From TrEMBL:
Biased composition (Polar residues): 274-283
InterPro entries assigned to the protein according to its UniProt record, in alphabetical order: Cro/C1-type_HTH (IPR001387), Lambda_DNA-bd_dom_sf (IPR010982), MLTR_LBD (IPR041413)
Annotated region described as Disordered, given as residue ranges: 263-293
Organism name: Actinomadura spongiicola
Alphabetized PANTHER family for the sequence: BLL4672 PROTEIN, BLL4672 PROTEIN-RELATED
Name of the molecule in the record: XRE family transcriptional regulator
HTH cro/C1-type domain ranges (all copies): 36-83
Superkingdom to which the source organism belongs: Bacteria
UniProt cross-references to CDD domains, sorted A to Z: HTH_XRE
């Protein structure tokens, strides 16, 4: 999809979610044919001409200034991630796509293997799982059994029915978070063919993904909570944090999970760590084999 089309769709989607009363625009009790603010109302709030704003929604962003984009972002009440996304759509960055396969320094794998009582893994820029410890496979997905080209969280969330079952009533929120993150990544790397191929695959194979993608939600993945209905140990509640790896440009971040001390989830993780026979990425690279749990 052309970036000018992305810009117009994003602006319209953010304008549609605002009600006149949210921003102090009188509606005079009139019935509106479309949801949200009208273009002329948004232009007035942003302090730009209606014609200029219409050109932006049509995708004509040549020469648009930072100040104008900031004013529109304030009028649309964009959050930080959305604000940055608007700037990237108007002025697309040029980035070199990540190398394939990504380079993994041995100390990073050693770090993962040293974490024995909590899931930990490293992802690349396409939600691709580059390296993982044994508990990641035991808790979420047995990644050693997944074809390498489908070893992404996006594939597992939207196309793996077993993993959907494991996510249970948390699947919708996890799926929306994943889609919003892919939107965030597409703004950072608009010309990355591998990222676009991933998005195209998910749009073609998952009606739910197509619907969520059309909502244009944008957010980075920084922290949160995973809730898993595990077939062996029951419900797991695992807060997680993401750590960036600035010295490794081909990698995206390190994901670390930890159960609350003394909680049933912590006890369940210890049980899995002692009994699971799932493989880590290091085991897989070394050619180890083990029966599946």
């Amino acid at each position: 999809m052309a970036r000018n089309g992305e810009l117009g769709e994003f602006l319209r989607s953010r304008r549609a979610r605002l009600r006149p009363e949210d921003v102090g625009v009188p509606s005079y009790g009139t019935r509106r044919r479309v949801p949200g603010l009208r273009r002329e109302e948004l232009a007035q709030l942003a302090g730009v001409s209606v014609a200029y704003y219409i050109r932006l929604e049509q995708g004509t962003a040549d020469g648009v200034s930072t100040e104008v984009l900031d004013a529109i972002a304030r009028a649309l009440r964009l959050d930080g991630d959305e604000h940055a996304h608007l700037h990237r759509l108007a002025h697309p960055p040029r980035r070199t796509p990540a190398t394939d396969p990504p380079r993994l320094r041995a100390p990073l794998q050693h770090l993962l293997d040293a974490i024995t009582h909590a899931p930990a893994y490293i992802v690349g820029p396409y939600t691709n799982v580059v390296a993982w410890n044994r508990l990641t496979a035991a808790v979420f997905v047995d990644l050693a059994a997944v074809p390498p080209d489908e070893r992404t969280w996006s594939h597992q969330i939207h196309l793996n029915d077993d993993y959907k079952t494991r996510l249970g009533d948390n699947w919708t929120s996890v799926a929306r978070r994943n889609v919003a993150h892919l939107r965030f990544r597409s703004g950072q790397a608009p010309d990355d063919p591998r990222l676009q191929a991933l998005i195209d695959t998910l749009r073609a194979r998952s009606p739910d993904f197509r619907e969520m993608w059309s909502a244009h939600h944008v957010t980075d993945l920084t922290h949160g909570e995973a809730r898993i209905d595990h077939p062996r140990v029951g419900r797991l509640v695992l807060p997680f944090e993401t750590l960036h790896l600035p010295g490794d440009p081909d990698l995206s971040r390190l994901m670390l999970y930890a159960a609350e001390p003394g909680s049933p989830s912590e006890k369940a993780l210890r049980e899995l760590s002692e009994t699971s026979t799932c493989l880590s990425s290091a085991d897989l690279t070394a050619g180890a084999s083990a029966p599946r749990p």
